């Protein structure tokens, strides 16, 4: 009971100290210590990134929009250490926002805005299902990593601007080998190795790139929407994984 009271007190306290900035199609919630100039820069970044994500997805006739109908909320969070999406809300750590719009940027300045917006506007059929107790975000995170890599303004985790295939090959060498794609979500959630979690993310993004490059965005989004991989591509998932891993050796 005491823990619940403390939790509610913290929530009410955060709400009382929050400011709201209304932009076209979304709002930003932030603490009073955040300069309005930073909020305005973030709003411009989110607006531009939203256009980029939707323009990419709308190239395909297979894109049917998102089940998330509520307006987007961008929450500048004091608590979170990494960016995160929860339904219509993307949480961006306060330290990263302040760093991103300062003169002293670092690899920890990454806000992953495109990554998190992809989670809002492209919800795969697999995300509805549980795998080892977690949402199955294999394809969701694959697409998010790929689009962040392709359209992000600055190098960010997990590839930090490096070619995705090469990043997988080099990280796998350090890790001791590739992770089986069927196990990547489990490793991403449960591995105590930061290198293992990073490799899992990289593999999901690089495999997404492979599918789109070789079969096109329309077919990729058919798979994303739940259609059989073999029906769409003519190959089984293990066969596709074999084809993909062979490319990595060449890199």
The gist of it:
By secondary structure, the protein is an alpha/beta fold.
Features:
alpha/beta; 251 residues; 10 helices; five-stranded mixed beta sheet; two-stranded antiparallel ribbon; 12% strand; 7 strands
Whole-Å distance between the termini? 56 Å
- The percent range for strand residues is 5-15%
What count of helical segments does DSSP give?
A: 10
SS-based class = alpha/beta
The average pLDDT is 91
Please outline the major beta sheet: 5 strands, mixed
Number of strands: 7
Helix content: 40-55%
Secondary-structure element order, N to C: HEEHEEEHHEEHHHHHH
| Unreliable spans | none
Write out the strand line-up for the largest beta sheet, numbering strands in chain order: 1-2-3-5-4
Characterize the overall form: globular
Using only C-alpha atoms, the radius of gyration works out to: 19 Å
């Amino acid at each position: 009971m005491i823990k619940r009271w403390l939790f509610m007190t913290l929530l009410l306290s955060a709400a009382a100290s929050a400011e709201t900035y209304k932009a076209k199609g979304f709002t930003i919630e932030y603490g009073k210590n955040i300069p309005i100039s930073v909020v305005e820069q973030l709003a411009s970044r989110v607006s531009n990134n939203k256009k980029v994500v939707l323009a990419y997805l709308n190239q395909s006739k297979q894109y049917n929009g998102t089940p998330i109908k509520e307006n987007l909320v961008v929450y500048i969070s004091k608590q979170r250490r990494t960016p995160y999406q929860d339904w219509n809300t993307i949480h961006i750590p306060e330290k990263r926002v302040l760093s991103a719009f300062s003169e002293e940027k670092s690899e920890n300045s990454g806000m992953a805005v495109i990554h998190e917006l992809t989670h809002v506007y492209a919800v795969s059929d697999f995300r509805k299902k549980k795998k080892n107790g977690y949402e199955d975000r294999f394809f969701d995170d694959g697409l998010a990593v790929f689009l962040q890599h392709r359209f992000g303004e600055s190098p960010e985790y997990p590839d930090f601007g490096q070619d995705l295939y090469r990043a997988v090959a080099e990280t796998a060498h350090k890790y001791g080998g590739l992770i089986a794609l069927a196990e990547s979500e489990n490793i991403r959630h449960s591995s105590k190795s930061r290198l293992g979690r990073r490799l899992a993310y990289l593999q999901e993004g690089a495999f997404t790139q492979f599918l789109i490059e070789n079969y096109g965005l329309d077919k990729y989004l058919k798979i994303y929407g739940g259609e059989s991989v073999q029906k769409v591509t003519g190959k089984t998932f293990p066969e596709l994984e074999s084809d993909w891993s062979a490319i990595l050796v060449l890199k």
